[in-house]
């Protein structure tokens, strides 16, 4: 690998470099994904643009509306340890804490991981289940992209070549919302999930008023289980109803055969773990 | 890895045959094909650009027709291509079978694809998914091309 | 390829190295600074043999571009003993069977140092969660866990 390394101090400077070098540029934040891609020769940029020195991209805090702002260069470890994240949703803390090992969490950034769009990652399904959105900035201005729409394929987002994620915004949860993140990893504790389920649910008068169920590691992107959600809408969440709703995810997921299991195995595990996640929410 | 695609075209078999054996024309149906030039009898050279996430490949190689039987409606192809920068190569054999379906034609495409070198380390399942997508797009485009002629 | 003048401290000593943009910290430590205690194992950030502390934070030297440590303070296994005297954690590893071949040991010691700093009285669960990123082919991990508990007085 041979490249020029740049460390801009402002977003505008980073954008300028991105536009100037076009397809010959690659962004780096934490580096856990980029260093491997570079070392394996799978990407060969002439210019690597670091976002590490841009203060505006760092930090985690509560927004005035009670929601959360996570800076793009905040690390997973910072998010895991943040009192503000925990106050909004302990399930979100759990999703960040589930990533790999403490070394990786110390290095990998929240924004960088979203831009990397590996469908087996832990935070994106949870962020999607909580209705989070990223702010993406380009020379044309800023736009908000819901996390559930960000990844469109393996390692592919809707971000344009001259767009940078600057932050993740999580809206305040409606009162009474419960959330959970469950990660099924039968191999090693530091692995990606074989299947993961992020779910948020709000009950009103004993019936499901609102629910979001997003599955990880079972498709080219996180999968929002809309059929399962629809089956629960307005219903009293009995065990049978939850089981029937969970069974619907089998047709909503699109897993690959790989080292973590066959597509059929993952399909079935998606059902099992969705049911368990929903039960955990209701019995909480 | 083995890929299988089937597509039905509203055209008679002999018309479909003409198109699938016209490699430069059929190649236009593969997204990312840059140029296909004849390079000998039943052989063609070309370039294919593919992207998976941040990884961009430019595969240079050739494709040869290795067998054809117009009466039976079957043909076979062999493709070899490599991306010297990323350090990977692909080898593929493609078997085509055309079958009459009362005025329409079923095109069955069976591909045996090997991904070698650095490329192969990237993640075979993801590569298979991508290859499946490309063959699916190819089959649909072929169907449109035949219908259009 | 751009080159960069780096200034950082390594185990309390100020260092200056000029590196090409693509140089990784593991190579700066081992080759440019002669600190070969940190090992290169898997080279993909999984095994933990390359564990170092950067401003007290546990990181993988094999995944860090050297340019990332400008102005930082790095601790490697060579920085644990003071004036030739092994520290309590190192003594515990010897006493409690925390190593055999020794190849993973620098990483284990650095990870355990960070663990005890973050969790002064770590539970068994804390230890396993934290240390799971440091692989060992020899000990079966019980000796490592014993040594850490002993050093942390738990």
List the helices and strands and how they pair.
The complex is a heterotrimer of chains A (284), B (149) and C (154).
Chain A: E1 4-6, H1 11-21, E2 25-28, H2 32-39, E3 47-50, E4 60-62, E5 68-71, H3 76-81, H4 83-88, H5 90-97, H6 102-107, H7 110-116, H8 123-129, E6 133-138, E7 141-146, H9 147-150, E8 151-153, E9 156-157, E10 164-170, E11 177-184, E12 195-204, E13 207-216, E14 223-224, H10 226-232, H11 239-247, H12 263-283
Parallel strand pairs in A: 1-3, 2-3
Antiparallel strand pairs in A: 4-5, 5-10, 6-7, 6-10, 8-9, 11-12, 12-13, 13-14
Helix pairs in contact in A: 10-11, 11-12
Chain B: E1 2-9, H1 13-20, H2 23-27, E2 33-38, E3 43-52, E4 55-69, E5 74-83, E6 88-101, E7 104-117, H3 118-121, H4 124-148
Antiparallel strand pairs in B: 1-7, 2-3, 3-4, 4-5, 5-6, 6-7
Chain C: E1 3-10, E2 13-20, H1 25-32, E3 51-54, E4 57-60, E5 73-75, H2 88-95, H3 105-118, H4 124-131, H5 142-151
Parallel strand pairs in C: 1-5
Antiparallel strand pairs in C: 1-2, 3-4, 3-5
Helix pairs in contact in C: 2-5, 3-4
Could you describe the 3D structure shown?
The complex is a heterotrimer of chains A (284), B (149) and C (154). Chain A is an alpha+beta fold and 284 residues long. Chain A has 3 domains: 4-50, Uridine Diphospho-n-acetylenolpyruvylglucosamine Reductase, domain 2; 57-170, Uridine Diphospho-n-acetylenolpyruvylglucosamine Reductase, domain 3; 177-283, Enolase-like, domain 1, CATH 3.30.390.50. Chain A has 12 helices and 14 strands. Chain A has helices at 11-21, 32-39, 76-81, 83-88, 90-97, 102-107, 110-116, 123-129, 147-150, 226-232, 239-247, 263-283; strands at 4-6, 25-28, 47-50, 60-62, 68-71, 133-138, 141-146, 151-153, 156-157, 164-170, 177-184, 195-204, 207-216, 223-224. In chain A, the strands form 4 sheets. Chain A has a 5-stranded antiparallel β-sheet with strand order 4-5-10-6-7. In chain A, strands 11-12-13-14 form a 4-stranded antiparallel β-sheet, with helices on both faces. In chain A, β6 (133-138) and β7 form a beta hairpin. The radius of gyration of chain A is 19 Å and the shape is globular. The N and C termini of chain B lie far apart (33 Å). Chain C has 2 domains: 3-79, Beta-grasp domain (Ubiquitin-like (UB roll), Roll), CATH 3.10.20.30; 88-151, DNA polymerase, domain 1 (Orthogonal Bundle). Chain C is globular. The mean pLDDT of chain C is 97.
